[in-house]
């Protein structure tokens, strides 16, 4: 690629026209409906000029952005100059570039364009250059040349995983499904409120469900929300993971491609990989499934709308598939998360989890109890009914969380497992651990427990061995990275508590 200054694709302006037209329609239709009760002429007179202004303002802003934006890729740096009134100049050293992600939403795909995000893994803005839009060929060229590294030995390209359509069965088991169901019911009420029919919808629901009683009505609403949420989760899964494949490319780069309407291409250099995290959300775990996340330096943090998926190498899939992919990614015959023998944690850790679970139930029920005493007995009945169901569930989850606790070392990896609703088994390269943090609350210190955090310049930044016996945790840390904790083991830790 030439080191000359280049501009973004000229079709940025037509893209802006189409996008702002959609925004104007989305904002104008509810406004038009709301004002039509007064007068149709008045509604059109207020809505149409506003819509035209929105389209023109957005188009002019995009034209100015295109007019004053230039970028170039030199031998040592990637530079971006942009801004009409306030000029912004950004420069990234090529040897610090860690990610080049290529995405294309439906509108960009119609025009044959993509958006390129070049990142160093540092600050969300200062360490990022965004080029939107450029042609797909330009995006692929940028990804290829900016992530090219001279490999110590040739690496053949091979496919580590491809999408199995049967994996879609795990989509309704995620916590996204109930959230989508509740959001759908709220959306119906909002839409009814826009057209002035919110009272009518509520009266219709009361007439329809009134004969079922309070518990029956709640059960029916929960069932409807569950069905709608499951359908929404299936659609979201198809949008996110259609066309998924995980490849190892020449030069030592892992590349994930996925997406139906919005396509995404995410690249991770193997030199930046510090381990994997096998994540088992509760629903997927009950169905024998897990997903695989990369623990790598330089990944995007807090800037992507689907941040939870940005580091995902494999969507929820059968556990044996997840173990195989984790092993292939780490170039091991057997995944460390599968090969390790995890040491159990003290019984005191179980008591802590049960107490926290019961405290969470009490915190959720307390507002209902207080309002019930002040306002109506109905809330008191809701409180004891929900508590009757929540306490056993909370205790079971707490006991499961205790059984999930474990840690161990195998080969060059430290493996840590914890969690129930979201069980995580992280295999962290011991050479990637750069520090340790030992934390004890007052109650942990009395029970002889501690959280021992392994600090790394990758992934979440720190991974914890939770509620481990203090002496055992320090011994594990010292054995995992010999010498790093030696000064503290010799002099002892200060008698302080970090609550």
TrEMBL record:
<keyword id="KW-0812">Transmembrane</keyword>
<feature type="domain" description="YdbS-like PH">
    <location>
        <begin position="67"/>
        <end position="137"/>
    </location>
</feature>
<feature type="transmembrane region" description="Helical">
    <location>
        <begin position="356"/>
        <end position="375"/>
    </location>
</feature>
<dbReference type="InterPro" id="IPR005182">
    <property type="entry name" value="YdbS-like_PH"/>
</dbReference>
<dbReference type="InterPro" id="IPR014529">
    <property type="entry name" value="UCP026631"/>
</dbReference>
<protein>
    <recommendedName>
        <fullName>YdbS-like PH domain-containing protein</fullName>
    </recommendedName>
</protein>
<keyword id="KW-1133">Transmembrane helix</keyword>
<keyword id="KW-0472">Membrane</keyword>
<dbReference type="Pfam" id="PF03703">
    <property type="entry name" value="bPH_2"/>
</dbReference>
<feature type="transmembrane region" description="Helical">
    <location>
        <begin position="170"/>
        <end position="192"/>
    </location>
</feature>
<feature type="transmembrane region" description="Helical">
    <location>
        <begin position="41"/>
        <end position="64"/>
    </location>
</feature>
<feature type="domain" description="YdbS-like PH">
    <location>
        <begin position="413"/>
        <end position="469"/>
    </location>
</feature>
<feature type="transmembrane region" description="Helical">
    <location>
        <begin position="12"/>
        <end position="35"/>
    </location>
</feature>
<feature type="transmembrane region" description="Helical">
    <location>
        <begin position="381"/>
        <end position="399"/>
    </location>
</feature>
<feature type="transmembrane region" description="Helical">
    <location>
        <begin position="212"/>
        <end position="238"/>
    </location>
</feature>
